[in-house]
Structure to design on (949 residues):
């Protein structure tokens, strides 16, 4: 029907529906193309019709050959308005440039040709007169006499065509029009086929000379590059550290840039792959931490995912080109390929998301370089705080993976007390070579730099304590069972995770709740074990009673019994004997009803001593506790206890000495009561000294009593009451230990043994020394008085005996004794003086010392000594 | 229907005019009829480069032919 219609003025515009590519339509289009070509040939060879047929077959051959080359990269998308517009614009721009360069002018109007071209171009493109205006423009451009004339030749000149193909038609490589299904005219002649082959060869050769690339090649190369492999044309340039199209290939600037952009994904992939492999291989020196492993496995997971995606894209590309090859045999002019065609641009769209992912991964890899454990998690946390939800999700996912081994460590630590951390990633570390007694205090430490930011310091400490408690139970208390955690461990799985999605902070509350739950259980178990199995409370009380002299009768007994032994030089005192004295003291006081287990802990100890020291100075009691309790009653605190004990013991001894003075003086007063008055002033004289002696003793005793009162009631009992309430309220061992330490430090400080009250204690020691001097002095006086009174009594007895015998008066042989009798009651004047002098000296010294002691009170404003001061100074003034 | 046909015809003419002008600006040496056939071919989806080649080939052939005729 159409064949019969000869073309008149204008060729018919083909009203093909852009979307309809049915085989029938394609066939019709092929036929129409052949028909139109026939007309073209007929016009060209109007003068010799016999040639038309040959020309037609050759033309068909050329077109078929060209199509074969082009159609594979040709894309359906190319026919979209955007694409063709872009192509038109670029061709028009290049034509315009060329016209300007030629500088020719229109003969009729005198305007430059370029201006005219611009006008016409605008008319075409604005009105949208032709559907394939771009094609027409390309055709006219190729046929244009301006540039074929330039080199003075006609026909397909390679150099000219090369110029046109590369600079003037930049989009040649990007693809042509949508081509239709190929259709082979079965009835072609042999000659035609030969012509086609020849032309085809010619065309292909021509293209090779240009070395301009087809989009198809670039797409394939980009796909290779995306897998980190060098393509045929796109290669990795180490000097520039990027992929690029090799210089010898001619590609339009746009395509080149597009390829370069697309190749970023390859660069990233290559880098990530390299890092992951390097990590896997390891360099031997650096042990690979589990968090790092988790991180890289997550990265590898993402890479595998990316690879899958890439395979999908590749299969699409392959299927489109394979489809092309299948139909290629039959292709004549146009061909349509089943499935989606993949162009550089569609590839760019497909790869954009993975590129972004890989980019984030690369940033992460760079960021966590050399980090491990908590530090790595922290870095990821920081990076997870990102505005882009995709990035947040990606990093969050990795974070989750990385946290998993960390949480495994946490739960293992909290449930089993086991620390499996060969690479030092966990935020708790075990100290090497810590003795069992120090396990609680120094056995485990926090690594502050490894604590994930989602875990607060308190939480980390709780976690530390929980695991430590379990270890403590296991190793120190030798407890095998510390609660059933099977139900909890399942809960752990659920709650031990960071939901990085919610602003990085994650599900910290859930973790906190969970940790608190486990910690409470373990803590209560520890406290229960300590207080019921190991009787911590009883022991602490016992320490207070024995070492802090809370048990008065026992101490009194001990002092009475050991007094004589302790008066010896330190070297001669036997600890063994003192031990048995202790036993006796225990048996003879109320404490004998105490638990033998507690009494067993009580020991006598002799401190290292100098040769000049007496037993009193080196004697001390000790309370020896065994393993689990040593965490509370550490060596350090025991030393503090001993210091307090020594001080108290000294005080007690001074008091005891004053009591002894009293005991000695009391009978002497009675003795003097019987002294006859007629013996004169001398007796009265010594009587005055004795009275003065009593006064001094009384003052000293008052001082000691008040000091003792202060220490017992204002220091020890108060501190104990406070500590006891804290001890009962303590929920975990740490609280108990800190309460105990606080109590002990308070006692030491308030008992004037602290750093700041050293001057006071020195002064106090001087007072004590003075009192001991006084004791010696009074003992001497008592001795003399006793002797005197004994002599007097002897004389009286003798006189009575004489009287009974009837001998009144004194006999002759007693003449010598008479003078002695005089001596008995009459102390020599020198003795009286020296006694009076020494007593006055003691009294004066004592006053000075106590005054000095009181004056030092303001130097320790942190202690509440008001009452003590009042009570002591009350008597002095 | 008729009016539309007429409109289309007018547009064709119009298009051909503009295209012809363009072809002259570019100095292609094509006449109106050839150009209209070529436009039709382009619209039919033929590769323009191939078409250009065909046109050049044809031109060369006819020139050769004419030259032969002239010689003979």
């Amino acid at each position: 029907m159409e064949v019969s219609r000869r073309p008149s003025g204008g060729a018919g515009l083909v009203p093909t529906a852009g979307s309809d590519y049915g085989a029938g339509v394609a066939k019709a289009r092929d036929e129409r193309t052949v028909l139109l070509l026939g007309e073209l040939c007929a016009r060209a060879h109007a003068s010799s019709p016999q040639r038309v047929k040959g020309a037609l077959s050759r033309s068909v051959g050329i077109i078929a050959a060209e199509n074969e080359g082009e159609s594979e990269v040709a894309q359906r998308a190319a026919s979209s308005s955007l694409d063709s517009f872009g192509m038109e614009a670029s061709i028009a721009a290049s034509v315009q440039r060329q016209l300007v360069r030629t500088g020719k002018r229109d003969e009729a109007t005198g305007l430059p040709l370029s201006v005219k071209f611009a006008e016409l171009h605008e008319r075409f493109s604005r009105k949208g007169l032709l559907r394939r205006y771009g094609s027409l423009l390309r055709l006219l451009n190729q046929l244009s006499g301006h540039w074929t004339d330039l080199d003075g030749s006609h026909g397909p000149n390679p150099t000219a065509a090369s110029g046109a193909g590369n600079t003037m038609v930049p989009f040649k490589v990007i693809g042509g029009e949508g081509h239709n299904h190929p259709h082979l005219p079965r009835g072609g002649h042999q000659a035609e086929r030969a012509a086609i082959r020849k032309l085809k060869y010619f065309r292909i050769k021509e293209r090779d000379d240009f070395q301009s690339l087809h989009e198809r090649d670039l797409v394939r190369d980009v796909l290779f590059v995306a897998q980190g492999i060098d393509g045929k044309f796109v290669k990795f340039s180490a000097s520039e550290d990027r992929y690029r199209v090799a210089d010898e290939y001619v590609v339009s600037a746009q395509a080149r840039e597009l390829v370069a952009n697309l190749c970023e994904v390859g660069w990233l992939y290559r880098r990530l792959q390299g890092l992951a492999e390097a990590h896997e291989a390891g360099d031997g020196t650096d042990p690979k931490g589990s968090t790092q492993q988790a991180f890289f496995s997550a990265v590898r997971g993402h890479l595998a995912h990316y690879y899958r995606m890439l395979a999908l894209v590749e299969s699409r590309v392959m299927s489109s080109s394979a489809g092309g090859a299948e139909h290629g045999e039959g292709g004549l002019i146009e061909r349509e390929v089943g499935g989606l065609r993949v162009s550089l641009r569609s590839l760019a769209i497909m790869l954009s998301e993975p590129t972004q992912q890989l980019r984030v991964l690369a940033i992460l890899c760079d960021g966590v370089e050399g980090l491990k454990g908590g530090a790595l998690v922290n870095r990821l946390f920081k990076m997870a705080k990102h505005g882009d939800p995709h990035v947040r999700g990606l990093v969050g996912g990795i974070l989750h993976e990385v946290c998993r081994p960390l949480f495994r460590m946490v739960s293992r630590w909290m449930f089993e007390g086991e620390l499996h951390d060969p690479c030092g990633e966990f935020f708790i570390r075990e100290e090497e070579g810590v003795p069992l007694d120090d396990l609680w205090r120094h056995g485990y430490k926090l690594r502050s730099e490894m604590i994930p930011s989602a875990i607060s310091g308190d939480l980390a400490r709780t976690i530390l304590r929980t695991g430590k408690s379990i270890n403590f139970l296991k190793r120190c208390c030798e407890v095998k069972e510390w609660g059933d955690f099977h139900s909890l461990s399942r809960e752990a799985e659920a709650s031990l995770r960071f939901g990085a999605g919610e602003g990085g902070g994650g599900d910290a509350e859930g973790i906190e709740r969970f940790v608190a739950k486990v910690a409470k259980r373990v803590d209560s178990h520890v406290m229960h074990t300590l207080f019921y199995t190991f009787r911590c409370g009883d022991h602490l009380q016992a320490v207070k009673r024995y070492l802090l002299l809370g048990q008065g009768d026992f101490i009194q007994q001990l002092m009475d019994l050991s007094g004589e032994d302790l008066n010896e030089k330190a070297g001669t005192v036997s600890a063994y004997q003192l031990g048995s004295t202790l036993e006796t003291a225990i048996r003879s006081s109320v404490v004998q009803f105490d638990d033998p287990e507690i009494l067993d802990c009580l020991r006598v100890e002799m401190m290292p001593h100098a040769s000049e020291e007496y037993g009193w100075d080196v004697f001390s009691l000790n309370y020896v506790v065994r393993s689990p309790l040593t965490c509370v009653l550490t060596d350090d605190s025991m030393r503090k206890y001993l210091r307090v004990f020594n001080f108290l013991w000294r005080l007690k001894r001074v008091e005891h000495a004053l009591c002894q003075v009293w005991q000695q003086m009391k009978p002497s007063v009675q003795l003097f009561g019987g002294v006859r008055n007629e013996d004169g002033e001398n007796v009265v004289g010594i009587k005055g000294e004795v009275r003065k002696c009593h006064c001094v003793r009384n003052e000293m005793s008052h001082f000691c009593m008040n000091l003792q009162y202060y220490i017992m009631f204002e220091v020890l009992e108060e501190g104990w009451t406070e500590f006891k309430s804290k001890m009962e309220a303590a929920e975990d061992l740490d609280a108990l230990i800190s309460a105990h330490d606080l109590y002990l430090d308070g006692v030491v400080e308030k008992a004037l043994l602290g750093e700041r009250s050293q001057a006071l204690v020195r002064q106090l020691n001087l007072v004590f020394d003075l009192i001991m001097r006084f004791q010696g002095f009074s003992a001497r006086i008592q001795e003399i008085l006793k002797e005197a009174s004994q002599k007097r009594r002897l004389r009286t007895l003798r006189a009575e005996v004489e009287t009974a015998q009837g001998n009144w008066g004194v006999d002759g042989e007693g003449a010598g004794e008479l003078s002695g009798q005089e001596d008995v009651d009459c102390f020599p004047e020198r003795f009286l003086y020296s006694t009076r002098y020494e007593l006055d000296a003691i009294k004066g010294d004592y006053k000075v010392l106590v005054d000095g002691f009181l004056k030092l009170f303001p130097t320790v404003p942190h202690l509440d000594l008001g009452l003590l001061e009042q009570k002591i100074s009350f008597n002095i003034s | 229907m008729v009016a539309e046909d007429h409109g289309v015809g007018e547009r064709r003419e119009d298009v051909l005019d503009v295209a012809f002008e363009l072809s002259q600006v570019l100095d292609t040496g094509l006449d109106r009829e050839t150009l209209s056939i070529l436009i039709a071919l382009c619209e039919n989806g033929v590769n323009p480069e191939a078409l250009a080649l065909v046109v050049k080939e044809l031109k060369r052939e006819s020139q050769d032919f004419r030259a032969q005729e002239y010689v003979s």
